[in-house]
Amino acid sequence: GNSVTQMEGPVTLSEEAFLTINCTYTATGYPSLFWYVQYPGEGLQLLLKATKADDKGSNKGFEATYRKETTSFHLEKGSVQVSDSAVYFCALSERSGGYQKVTFGTGTKLQVIP
Amino acid sequence: DTAVSQTPKYLVTQMGNDKSIKCEQNLGHDTMYWYKQDSKKFLKIMFSYNNKELIINETVPNRFSPKSPDKAHLNLHINSLELGDSAVYFCASREQRGGVDEQFFGPGTRLTVL
Lengths: 114, 114
Description:
The structure holds two protein chains of two kinds.
Chain A lengths: L2 E4 L4 E4 L4 E3 L1 E4 L5 E7 L5 E7 L5 E4 L2 E4 L9 E3 L8 E11 L2 E6 L3 E6 L1
Parallel strand pairs in A: 2-12
Antiparallel strand pairs in A: 1-4, 3-9, 5-6, 5-10, 7-8, 8-9, 10-11, 10-12
Chain B lengths: L3 E4 L2 E4 L5 E7 L5 E7 L5 E8 L2 E5 L6 E7 L2 E6 L8 E11 L2 E6 L3 E5 L1
Parallel strand pairs in B: 2-11
Antiparallel strand pairs in B: 1-3, 3-8, 4-5, 4-9, 5-6, 7-8, 9-10, 9-11
């Protein structure tokens, strides 16, 4: 079956530091890949996505590139802010049994300190 | 306008009770989900409905019974609540039109079983 593996957190960074959260996946076909963000006390919301190999998703200064050769979709940001403190989920979506099924990673908590 | 809403936001109850959580989406999506998020933020899919039809039913105890009266609503009824049912339950709906594939999450229902 499909699976998504994320680096374990928590990740603690100082403001303006560079962020990388690793994500690798296993899928039988050609999935779409996503990063979702969950701010404290809220539901998940889509941060960025990529639908095919070599696509780069970007939003709010975050970027991730769909790398088929390494089955990875690492999340990066050049300069984090305190307001980026949240839990980040990598996910993939693939057709299974006639329907699209989404598989989430375990989440990585990011804490940015001033 | 709230896209995906859940009630109640908090639910505290005794072991053995039966409770329901309601979910409504006003986005016109065909597919809705229930997820369970544990204290470590791990997100696990429980059920998915497409146009009122159950399409995903993960290994969830049969004490959990989803009901979809129409495609805008997906409710979750839980019988004989146990301590291990304590978690945050998220409802989500999914848009898949014109290549867009995104899940929209509700704010969550924090269930505490005493």
